[in-house]
Amino acid sequence: MTDGKFKAGQSGNPRGRPPGALNKKTRVSIALDAAAEDVTKAVIDAAKDGDMQAAKLVLERIQPPVRPRAERVQFALDPTGPLTAQAQQVLVAVAAGELDPETGKLLVECLSSFAGLRQTDELAARIELLEQATREAQHTGARGGVLQTGQPV
User: Fold this and answer.
1) Which of 84, 90, 108, 109 is the most buried (most CB within 10 A)?
2) Domain boundaries, the chain
3) Residue 152: beta bridge partners?
4) What is the C-alpha to C-alpha distance for residues 121 and 125, in angstroms, rounded to an integer?
5) Span 105-137, pLDDT tens digits
6) How far is CA 110 from the centre of its chain?
7) Which of 4-8, 59-63, 98-102 shows the lowest mean pLDDT across its residues?
8) pTM above threshold 0.90
9) Which 3 state secondary structure label does DSSP give 152?
């Protein structure tokens, strides 16, 4: 190694891990696979003997907990209106029983996320206007700035 590179086929660490040696994660995975059947049997036996933790574990594997699912709903929502008005429409639908509270909460959170995306887009557009005005001012040699209207001085 004279030019900072090792010769082809020559290791930079000749006493390092030998080729084909398994790392710790692989060894643990192999050991778990080998013991999986015994562990499964022991947990099932413990559940049969009244161990409630073991029974819970076994039952969750047989029948996972059911996640709540919202049904399709229809209610009046004007997507062209301001986001606060849309959120108010969702709350009115919840109050009228047209929409369950969980779904209403989810929809209001979606509207809030959308508002954040809209703000990001608006800020990006404003920054682009400022950068464009700055470039134009540099090309013309002007020393002005940008008016609050977004128009270059």
Assistant:
1) 90
2) 24-62, 83-140
3) 146
4) 6
5) 999 999 999 999 999 999 999 999 999 999 988
6) 14
7) 4-8
8) no
9) strand
